């Protein structure tokens, strides 16, 4: 392992991996390839821009000519593929780009890697391929049940990776990460979106009752998990990378507001997203058996994240213009306008449904969902 191609390396997790690998392995050459779509940002790579073992190439993994050129120019022996369209909301609005990158792009990247004889191909996937996990924890052998165009496209890419291992004998590994957060995350995802809006005292549109459960993983821990799987993972296997810290979205939002010293009245419940999975949760014993362990609790990670966005307005303020504002209007304007037609979620007196163990639950009417008892509550 010497010349590592990091595709999608100007995005959130990909750039964190590139920064980590450049410092951790000075004898490796880290070649970042990125198409620089709306979420790809060369500013994410500024900390390593002068490092002698870092190079940047602009290109699309679905462009066979560009991929061939990069493989040959840098004698690539290892691929770590982060390149993906990754926002569920955008996949609901328009899935074309997701199929182009997450399925067709993965196929072309695999095919060119096979032709070039790469030694290792690691594909970064997501916990969302498992679908809605009502109870328990997903393990790597569980069947896929994707419920959004994004999740379906990631499952398709994974199956392509598997096929190249089984059919062509390629040395492939897949990682499935849980809900990752941290610095440099494009402000369309829940935490950076809410942090940057709250800094400006803007309303925060929270889907539904806010009781969707996600497993929160700090980005540096996700990166070390990928490093572990890259160096120690068994060919043909998949590895869950989980924070194992399940929290309600509303709980995360309130924790963020408390750290910023902002009022909870900024939260505005809006009609839920189409096909919104209620709960994701993974078991990561398989990766731990290779020696990985996370270094950050959720509380530590969210403090670091809030502090970073406070201190780096130069980074996110120039993003929240143009295309970003247009997307915001497409995604949230109608929902915010519809709040009056969503009486369960009125401001002031908001009736919602909480699991009996939820810190926001009050005694009330039982309401069943999945594995937990839900109760009507007034916030």
- Return residue spans where pLDDT drops below 50 for at least 5 consecutive residues: 340-379
Which strands sit side by side, in order, in the main sheet? 3-2-1-4-5-6-10
Mean pLDDT: 86
* Class inferred from helices and paired strands: alpha/beta
Q: Approximately what portion of the residues adopt beta-strand conformation?
A: 15-25%
Overall outline:
globular
The end-to-end distance, rounded to whole angstroms, is 55 Å
- Rg, nearest Å: 21 Å
- Helix content class: 25-40%
SS summary, helix count: 12
Give me the count of strands. 15
**Helix and strand run:** EHEEHEHHEHEEHEEHEEHEHHHHEEE
Q: Sketch the major β-sheet.
A: 7 strands, parallel
Summarize the model shown.
The protein has 379 residues and is an alpha/beta fold. The protein is built from 12 helices and 15 strands.
